[in-house]
Write a structure and sequence with these properties.
Strands 3-2-1-4-5 form a five-stranded mixed β-sheet, with helices on one face. The chain is of the alpha/beta class.
């Protein structure tokens, strides 16, 4: 049931009809399995050092010597209760959640922070990511590339023009 719910983004009500179990049982067991997965995740999730680029990947990032990746926010459509809709309405008028995604130069996710209301700006979400207990870590002397939705600050920059002196077309 756990994998079925995750793989197909199913509601407990749908699983209730498929497996002939109560929604309370499905919820309880889903959360039990989720807690178990979180407990063993440290043993099975191995994080790689993102500074080991080789070949063409290293060639693409040569202009950004101290960069450890890029970050940006994206809006994902959600369904919320009627009283919460104003908070989740983004600048385009859609109901969404703002998710911060951080990728290394190898395009693998380093950090993801979901759950912010669509009305929250990218800088606000990043500020929260830097202050949380399991915060986004930026080593000294390194930075992430960002777009204009973020102000320049320690650890992230949207203005790399000073560091890029020549751009070669390949």
């Amino acid at each position: 049931m756990f994998l079925h719910i995750l793989a197909h983004n199913l509601k407990y009500r749908v699983v209730h009809f498929t497996y002939y179990r109560s929604k309370e049982t499905i919820s309880r067991q889903f959360n039990n399995v989720l807690r178990a997965v979180m407990k063993v995740s440290g043993e099975y999730l191995k994080f790689q050092d993102h500074n080991n680029l080789e070949g063409s990947e290293a060639y693409k990032w040569r202009w950004f010597q101290n960069s450890i990746g890029a970050l940006d926010g994206t809006h994902i459509p959600v369904t919320v209760a009627a009283e919460d809709k104003p908070r989740y309405r983004n600048r385009k008028g859609d109901i969404s959640t703002n998710v911060l995604g951080v990728c290394g130069p190898d395009l693998k996710f380093i950090y993801v922070l979901p759950g912010w209301e669509g009305s929250a700006g990218d800088s606000r979400v990043l500020r929260d990511a830097l202050r949380r207990q399991n915060h986004l870590q930026i080593p000294n002397g390194k930075y992430f590339l960002v777009d204009a939705g973020y102000t320049n600050g320690p650890g992230y920059t949207s203005n790399v023009a000073n560091e890029v002196t020549t751009i070669q077309v390949s």
